[in-house]
Amino acid sequence: MEIYRFDSIPSTNTALAQLSKKGAKSWTVIWTSNQTQGRGYAGNEWKTEKGMNLAFSVLINSQLNHPELIYFNQWVCNIIHRYLSRFSNEVFIKWPNDIIVRNKKVCGILIETHKSDNQLNIISGVGLNVNQKDYSRLPKAGSLLTQTGKEYDLEEILSGLLTEMENSYHQIENEEWEEISLNYNRYLFRKDEIRSFKTNDEIFNGIIKQVNHSGFLVLELENGRVKTYQHKEIELLY
Known about the structure:
Layout: E1 2-6, H1 12-20, E2 28-32, E3 38-39, E4 45-46, E5 54-62, H2 69-84, E6 91-94, E7 98-101, E8 104-116, E9 119-128, H3 144-148, H4 154-168, H5 170-173, H6 177-186, E10 194-199, E11 202-211, E12 217-221, E13 226-229, E14 235-237
Parallel strand pairs: 1-2
Antiparallel strand pairs: 2-5, 3-4, 5-9, 6-7, 7-8, 8-9, 10-11, 10-14, 11-12, 12-13
């Protein structure tokens, strides 16, 4: 594993994509404690406070096809969930790719890909709020510090997460999609609870039943109907 640290960088995903196009090997990692232009899923921004948080990206060269990337995303979510569960017993996965600790978002994941030489280069970007204290302008966000009351060493957190990824990669190599999906759904945020959702201008109640093998959220509605939604079609109000 080759690990590159930057004191400051606009985006670890962008930098690693550039390296991968120049022939970087699997398990090349870029990380920083000051990502200035971090990108989230579906074009969202990921903003953090300098020196307080962790942003890193991991390159894996793979033969996976695009439909299997759903499971790859779930696999990364499962790894971060499992690791952060060392610090709290209230850690959940919010569909499709956020990690919640005690009802606050502390982590976002962004999977990006490009092809070269007939292989798929998968870049897993992770933004983890670690020691930041002030979230007065982001009421749904928090950090490991705000949610557990303890400060953490960024390099220790990075090392632990990368070790967890390496030790669990056999699940991807062996195509253990059912197991990955099962674990992802087991810790799904607000699963089997009556909750409010918003789609377009409508607010309604429903129950999260699962995320299906297409990556869609499956809801049971008040009238008993079951309906599936893609990301950005629906928002969980929590």
